[in-house]
Amino acid sequence: MSNDPGKNQEDEDRMHEFTTLSGADTIEVGRQLVRVLKPPQLLILRGDLGTGKTTLVKGIAQALDAAEADEVTSPTFTLIHEYGEGRVYHVDLYRLDEPREVATLGLEEIFDRDSMVLIEWGERFPRLLPANRTEIRIRPVGEDEREIEVRQT
Description:
CATH class: Alpha Beta
Largest sheet: 7 strands, mixed
Number of helices: 5
CATH topology: Rossmann fold
Strand content: 25-35%
Order of helices and strands: HEHEHEEHHEEE
CATH superfamily: P-loop containing nucleotide triphosphate hydrolases
């Protein structure tokens, strides 16, 4: 939890910060987030390539009994992976350039389900996504160290 004195209590209740030192730590943060962020939930995962977005999803999927960590892979080429019979959807919009391409995925149907929906590169298409969402930003601060900021909107 952030301890910035410039933030009011409402901001504090809506934001969490973590520092991880390994992939295993990032998976554990994903497990911890499930205690706070219950389905249905839309999570936008922000961070450069290779920062650990899919690693975080591994912990979330595992905590929801949707998949084991080693079963979770990046959906970069398939665009959507479904785990646990629809308990978790992992979406990657990196390869899409136009809103019309995103519209063909049928995300509206997924948003209506009692699921955890995690979208990588969702910030590229903000108008196509519901306003009620949680953003998770992952930033590398060393070779294996990451800062993870979770902000509910």
